[in-house]
Amino acid sequence: MSSSNGDRALDRITALAAILFDAPMSGIVVNGRYASVQGAPIAAPQVTDVSIDHQPMTLAPYAHCRVYVPITRTDGSHLGTLYVADTQARRVSEKQLHGLANLAEMAQTELQVRGVTKAAPHLLFVMDAATRELTWLSDDRIELNLDDDDSICAALETLNHEDARAGLDVQVGHRWLRLGLRVTYCDPAGRPTEITGVLHDITESKATEARLAAQRDQLAQLVTTDELTQVSNKRGLNQRLQLLCAEAERGRRFAVAMVDIDFFKKVNDTHGHSTGDAVLKAVADTLQQSVRKTDFVARFGGEEFCVIFTDVDGPTALALAERLRAAVAGCTTSPVRVTASFGLSMCAGRNVITQVQLLESADQALYRAKRSGRNRVAMARRIMPAGTKSGRAVAA
């Protein structure tokens, strides 16, 4: 997937839109021009509300399903269009539409910030390079303590020749200001004698940047969270495992447990899928509440979960997994009492190992636990006793 124009802020938004829909194409169109494109561009109409078009295109890129969301100014007027497109027929969920609307708001904020920054009020002053005394050329002025601000002092030290320039952001009270400095006069020896300063008020754009960062964090969480159970989804799990596998090469130790709810199909067949969903939520909550703060819980798919125990050795990982097994077996919030089987694999320090290898190893141990009677913990290469009356010990 490629971006069109290198606009990093808008490209992040369209990339998130493509991830949210798992679609090959997305883009932002402003005034008939593409401000950002992921994948092949498509024609985007000017819409006033969310629009979904399932009519297949007859020309390349042959997009089958297209979703358009308007980007509006604060006064409600049209600013642009955010779109996502897929070459396959598909359903569009309310969660995805909600996420795309949030991205459209982020795009609106980003586009309007640029207008705010261009029109920002400014203050002018001239500074004597030797005494650093300021003479204000604008009606407004502020208390700018040049000698007390290390960043300004460092910038001034670089202004040592004709037409030298420097720029930085400074905070004065509750205001953020962008300070531009330039040497405007030098003595016959080439030493700066006068420096001109321009101050732009960027308080509003700084606040907007903070809001955008918070929105990006919220959306990033949205695309890595399982909608039903509210624990991490497989995408979030892969991201965490990729990081831990890299850290393992530098000596970090961790364990991965695959967790499968025993006889879950029977729960759905006997009590219905709504009860099955309630069981999944209860098990996810139990796992999340029973792990340490440094551990990680994700829904792997269906009735399977994955738990990562960080900074542990083998015996500690086994004890933690056994504690989770007992917690699931004793869960009282589930509408149907269930148990779970655990398959555990270890990543010892300084091992070059992939997340695929870890998950496969844990999965093999899980199958051994299920074949040996379920409701027990199995570690790669051996089965461990359950530790309570509900689970029976099985020889290696």
Descriptive key words:
16 strands; 36% helix; Alpha-Beta Plaits; disordered N terminus; alpha+beta; 396 residues; Beta-Lactamase; extended
In brief:
Helix content is 36%, strand content 27%.
> SSE string, helix = H, strand = E?
HEEEEEHEEHEEEHHEHHEEHEHEE
Into which percentage range does the β-strand content fall?
Answer: 25-35%
- Please give the share of residues in helix: 25-40%
Low-confidence stretches: 1-6, 116-120, 382-396
Tally of domains: 3
Q: Quick one: CATH class of the largest domain? A: Alpha Beta
Computed CA radius of gyration, to the nearest angstrom: 29 Å
Note down, in words, how this protein is organized.
The chain is of the alpha+beta class and about 400 residues long. It folds into 3 domains: about 10-115, Beta-Lactamase; about 120-200, Beta-Lactamase (2-Layer Sandwich), CATH 3.30.450; about 225-385, Reverse transcriptase/Diguanylate cyclase domain (Alpha-Beta Plaits, 2-Layer Sandwich). The chain has 9 helices and 16 strands. It has helices at about 10-20, 95-120, 150-155, 205-225, 235-250, 265-270, 275-290, 315-330, 355-370, and strands spanning about 25-30, 35-40, 50-55, 65-70, 80-85, 120-130, 135, 165-170, 175-185, 190-200, 255-260, 295-300, 305-310, 340-345, 375-380, 380-385. The strands form 3 sheets. A 6-stranded mixed β-sheet has the order 12-13-11-14-15-16, with helices on both faces. A hairpin with a 5-residue loop joins strand 9 (about 175-185) and strand 10. Helix 1 runs parallel beside helix 4 (about 205-225) and helix 6 (about 265-270) packs across helix 7. It is extended, with a radius of gyration of 29 Å. Mean pLDDT is about 85; it is low at about 1-5, about 115-120 and about 380-395.
